[in-house]
Specification:
The chain is mainly alpha-helical and about 180 residues long. Helices cover about 65% and strands about 10% of the residues. It has five helices and three strands. Strands 1-2-3 form a three-stranded parallel β-sheet.
Length: about 180
Amino acid sequence: MFWNRQRKKTDKLILGDENIYKTTNVIDVKIECREQLFSAYSYSDNKLNTEFSEYLSDKAKSVPIKEQVKIQIHTKDDIEVAEVEQAVKSHFRAQYKEQKKEVTRLTVISLIMLTLGIIALTALILIEYFTDNIYVTYIADIAAWVFIWEAVDIFFLQRAVAKAKCVLIQRIYTASIEICSESI
């Protein structure tokens, strides 16, 4: 009883602090050198640093869904907005293509599993009609439900997560970027 009351009190405390730490649509980034923004290993074109792209993805999750993401880069270096926009768009375009392939792959696997489940159900009906072997009936019954269960899991749960990642990538791709120069 005491623990439950204490958890409720802590829950109210945590949720009540929301007004103090409001989430905004602005992602502030402090860049001290170009290697924090662009990959040090990129030779031909400016590719985003992996840590920077993961930071953007992590921070974009907390931006309210109805607001557009805005990225403010605070730096002392001479970095052009067009250069950063091109690198961000190129990086997240590649991620988006990969994620869309994952959504398509999950859809195809789900349809294959559903088809196998329907085939197993059909086999179950035929087995029950032509024979009275309880072991084969149980195996066909289990196979049908496993395939159908997996199809539902993939299509409605796993595919939804992949589509949510697509939406997150779209939000970062369309983000407005602003460079704020800091004085030395």
